[in-house]
Amino acid sequence: MDWSQTFGIFANPLFYLGETPVTLASLIQFIILVILVLIATRMVRRLLRARVLSRLPLGMGAKDAIARLVGYVVLVLGLMVALQTLGVDLTALTVLAGALGIGIGFGLQNIVNNFISGLIILFERPIQLGDRVEVGGVQGDVVRIGGRSTTIRTNDNIDMIIPNGEFISEQVVNLSYGDRKVRIRIPFGVSYNSEPRQVEKLALEVAAADPDVLKDPPPSVRFMGFGDSSLDFELRAWTADLAHRPGLFRSNLYFALWDQFKKHEIEIPFPQRDVNFRNSLRVQMRPEKGDQAGTPPGES
Question: Is 56 left (phi over 0), alpha (psi -120 to 50) or beta?
């Protein structure tokens, strides 16, 4: 075996980056360095979260933002050191940067937009990990904020991966922004035979007995109007523990309202309609054949 020829394959230039020849050996060395930089970036993020940020009085979102930004800085510096270690003149990358800019202009604008949007989210923090948000008709908890996309987990335990650009360009409802308390409305109707003040009292008792209803702010009942078949009310209650599960919160209160009203013989009506005939119809009986006088058959 000709070892000189074998090693010559690794030493022969594959292409030139500016005036710097890139050989197979240098390319393998660069790939190894990039892998080491990626591993170092992850280790720095984990150590920063576990040893430093965990001791600081910061929110979960702020800790994640700092860890990611530091990771990006380590990644960029590591790649620059890897290139310079190979003897690559960074000024020679201007041609590559120009080509990359053309590629971004034609086909990568969405990726760059989502990446920049991710940085804006990490700096401004309109959403944070653990927040309950609604965007594009999807509602759930923020479980991950990445460089390109954000993961939202719905109540059905389904992870929705949403591009970061939608959080900047679209309308986003953050149900827990600054405060995890939310007010949930529970509409209901009772019979016209019911006493409105008694209905209000019973509904407030139901809210007071529910452990998920906050005492401050207190729940309230509003008389919404006179419906076609019922007196319409609305129970308004605040919650923090079930802010991310409003369906369960409403269901618990509806069950309790049903039991309370049934106990006190308050009827929950169903839609009813009265039909009135304004003009009566006259029905004229035609006599049978052979009965000119209209007498019943068989009689003479």
Answer: beta
**Whole-Å CA distances, 84 to 25, 154, 240:** 15, 46, 54
Domain 182-263 listed as CATH 3.10.20.880: no
Q: Assess whether pLDDT exceeds 70 at residue 200.
A: yes
CA 74 to chain CA centroid, nearest Å: 31
pTM, 2 dp: 0.51
Encode pLDDT of 241-298 as tens digits. 888 788 899 999 999 999 999 999 999 887 766 666 666 555 555 666 555 555 555 5
| Residue of 31, 28, 32 lying closest to 9 (CA atoms) | 28
Q: Are the C-beta atoms of 71 and 47 separated by less than 8 Å?
A: no
Domain ranges of the chain: 11-107, 126-174, 182-263
Extended beta strands in the chain, E state: 13-17, 20-23, 132-135, 138-145, 149-153, 159-163, 172-174, 182-190, 220-226, 231-239
d(CA 233, CA 109): 51
More confident site: 20 or 148: 148
